[in-house]
Amino acid sequence: MPIGDMTMSLIFRIVFIIAGAVTALFVARDALNFTIIQTFVAVLLVTAIVGVGSFWSLRRKT
User: What span, in angstroms and rounded, lies between the C-alpha atoms of 38 and 48?
Assistant: First the structure.
């Protein structure tokens, strides 16, 4: 497996571990829609990270 694939896989695993922990605070793991909510939380986390990164770089340029 190429190194880029392993890196992306590691990033996705970390994001889904964090999303699973956050989702477990609000939804029981036995719930039927746990994975759907976990995926939604993961998308929100990625969006927040990209948003913070873009604002951080914008702040450094000025």
Answer: 15
Q: Are 19 and 25 in contact (CB under 8 A)?
A: no
Asked whether 25 and 39 are in contact (CB, 8 A), the reply is no
Q: Kindly report the average pLDDT of the chain as a whole number.
A: 90
Q: Which pTM does this prediction carry?
A: 0.81
- The count of other CB atoms within 10 Å of the CB of residue 54 is 10
Specify the number of domains making up the chain: 1
At residue 28, φ and ψ (nearest 5 deg) are -70, 145
pLDDT at res. 30: 93
Whole-Å CA distances, 11 to 6, 36, 38, 53, 59 = 9, 19, 16, 16, 25
Quote the domain boundaries for residue 25. 3-61
